[in-house]
Amino acid sequence: MSRDLLIGTLVDSAPVTPARVLAPRLNRHTFWCGESCSGETYALGVLLEQVLLHTRLPLVVLDPNSDFSRLGEVRHEAPAREAAELAARDVRVFRPGDPARPLHARFLRMPLRSRVALLQIGSKAWR
């Protein structure tokens, strides 16, 4: 697994300095957010491509706006080596209401802590 993932350059850096993310730090839950129209969707897309190309980390992307619904597709203009690498990945996109690819969760088989968190039992909202 590659340790550093190049995701761009640092703004206003002189000389130009690459912006990198440490791949080993992504092996836990990662939350990505930003103001509307601040480029967070584009930046996350770049990061996801780098993770798919250079690591074996498993990904689950919850995408209510369908911004990454084509993540499993490889553009025809992609460099051959990267296209082959991305094509070899097992990327599955699930959409609501797709009878061919339903998404199910085995609620009763989930650990108790996961069920409590999902139902928000014990959260401040319930007190």
Description:
There is one protein chain. This protein has 127 residues and is α+β, with helices and mostly antiparallel strands. It has one domain (4-96). 24% of the residues lie in helices and 9% in strands. The protein is built from three helices and two strands. It has helices at 40-54, 80-87, 112-119, and strands at residues 4-9, 18-22. The protein has a two-stranded antiparallel sheet. The relative contact order is 0.10.
Can you tell me the residue ranges where pLDDT is under 50 for at least 5 consecutive residues? none
What is the rounded distance between the termini? 45 Å
Helix content: 10-25%
Number of helices: 3
Radius of gyration, CA atoms, in whole angstroms: 18 Å
- Which class do the helix and strand fractions yield? alpha+beta
Write down the domain tally. Answer: 1
What can be said about the biggest beta sheet?
2 strands, antiparallel
Jot down its keywords:
globular, 2 strands, two-stranded antiparallel sheet, 127 residues, single chain, alpha+beta
Topology summary:
Layout: E1 4-9, E2 18-22, H1 40-54, H2 80-87, H3 112-119
Antiparallel strand pairs: 1-2
Entry summary:
It contains three helices and two strands; from the N terminus they run ββααα. It is an alpha+beta fold and 127 residues long.
